[in-house]
Amino acid sequence: MVLRDIALELGGGEFVAIMGESGVGKSTLLNVIAGLDMPDAGSVQLDGVELTALDDTRRTLVRRDSIGFVFQAFHLLPHLTVMRNVRLPLDLAGVSPTEADRRTRAMLDAVGLAAMALDYPRSLSGGETQRAAIARAIVHEPVLVLADEPTGNLDAENAAEVLALLRNQVKQRGAAAVLVTHSAAAAEVADRVYELTAAGLVPRNL
Fold it and tell me: Are the beta carbons of 191 and 16 closer than 8 angstroms?
């Protein structure tokens, strides 16, 4: 048994951090929330849709349209420019090229990367790369953003800047966000903090 007695509800604009040691199931919990893994019992509801009742194809569409992901390893595509990387969710959603360009440029400006739109990921610093990943995660205006150790590859200064950026952008757009981390410093940006244990989620004060 990996996860047991998990109960969590988020509203729009709410930023929640979940802490826990390596191997406790933090990434598995994100996968369940996103509908990538199915729980043996219980349900996951997103914006009125019960993900656990959908088939694989429909869950994929929900993820494409309604969820943004930010990872520790960035996962930018090296052969695409920063702009093309950030624009990718809009292209997959069938947004017109003109509108996709407009929204992407506005998003790059919001995260401070407008001047690097035509650069490739290899030319970016770690902090800049994660800014681009955040831009890609929210450019399609998801209702939920899931961040899995997004500052694990960054130094303390870049980590603080990236977390502040993520929090501000999520709140400006009224999305809900779940950050999983082992770092108390990272969790400090959250409105609520929980510890993931074998007995479930336990509220934690930092």
Answer: yes
Pair 20, 183: CB distance under 8 Å: no
Distances from the Cα of 42 to the Cα of 51, 117, 168, angstroms: 11, 43, 32
CA 97 to chain centre: 24
Helices (H), 111-202: 126-138, 156-172, 184-187
Tokens representing 90 are 């809009």
Give CA–CA dist 29/6, Å, rounded: 9
Q: Above pLDDT 90, what percent of the chain?
A: 73
pLDDT digits (tens, 9 = 90+) for 121-147: 999 999 999 999 999 999 999 999 999
**Inter-CA distances, 83 with 78, 111, 148, 170, 172, Å:** 12, 12, 23, 20, 21
Return the structure tokens found at 169.
């952008």
Domains and CATH numbers, the chain: 15-203 (3.40.50.300)
**Do residues 154 and 126 lie in contact, with contact meaning Cβ atoms separated by under 8 Å?**
yes
Q: What is the mean pLDDT of the chain?
A: 92
